[in-house]
Design goal:
heterodimer, A: about 120 residues, 6-stranded mixed sheet, 4-stranded antiparallel sheet, about 0% helix, B: about 120 residues, mainly beta, globular
Chain lengths: ~120, ~120
């Protein structure tokens, strides 16, 4: 069985602070995929990043960066110089690598990030 | 359209009635997924379609839930004899699902179902 844990239910920071959202996962699969999605108040889930289990390179995209550590089964997400528009619920998700290319995502419970002006 | 669309955006129904939720995937996406988001359970995967077939229906919460997809495009999720615990946001996603290649699921805006 797969499991994703986002221990931080809610984080509140002041604008311009850096913030890290934690994600720990469990899987018996040797290959798998990890994702982060953002859900702003409008409700639609917005894709942020996908990471393969065999690629442990960290990634940076603007103010966003992701740290994947297979040894600790973690895939943490950092926002640098946070902005009010970053306020949202962020979900970490896991998907097994099935040959068919399609399978459901296992989501964490989400972290509600509040950026105060 | 450019993204996944779902209808209706909101649905209020009475306990015991049947409801149909519709999902229109991104053009060209062969895989389609249904999820449910509720306060208590978070985001739950329900079912996916590869083309018109659903290989695994075990994620559906009960036999009151069914889903179909025709023509490799539009899908409907039907809930029969709705119960109050069915109240949730039902999300649909689609992906290219190329064999042997992971892909990304893109989500629609959801249908908020309220069962009175």
């Amino acid at each position: 069985a797969q499991k994703v844990t986002q221990a931080q239910t809610e984080i509140s920071v002041v604008e311009k602070e850096d913030v890290t959202l934690d994600c720990v996962y469990e899987t018996r699969d040797t290959t798998y995929y990890l994702f982060w999605y953002k859900q702003p108040p409008s409700g639609e889930l917005v894709f942020l990043i996908r990471r393969n289990s065999f690629d442990e390179q960290n990634e940076i995209s603007g103010r966003y960066s992701w740290n994947f550590q297979k040894s600790t089964s973690s895939f943490n997400f950092t926002i640098t110089a946070s902005q009010v528009v970053d306020s949202a619920v962020y979900f970490c998700a896991l998907r097994r690598n099935e040959g068919g290319g399609a399978d459901g995502l296992t989501f964490g419970k989400g972290t509600h990030l509040i950026i105060q002006p | 359209g450019a993204g996944v669309s779902q209808s209706p955006s909101n649905k209020v129904t009475e306990k015991g009635k049947d409801v149909e939720l519709r999902c229109d995937p991104i053009s060209g996406h062969t895989a389609l997924y249904w999820y449910r988001q509720s306060l208590g359970q978070g985001l739950e995967f329900l079912i996916y379609f590869q083309g018109n077939s659903a290989p695994d229906k075990s994620g559906l919460p009960s036999d009151r839930f069914s889903a179909e997809r025709t023509g490799g495009s539009v899908s409907t999720l039907t809930i029969q004899r709705t119960q109050q615990e069915d109240s949730a946001v039902y999300l649909c996603a689609s992906s290219l699902a190329l064999r042997g290649v992971s892909d990304t699921q893109y989500f629609g805006p959801g249908t908020r179902l309220t069962v009175l």
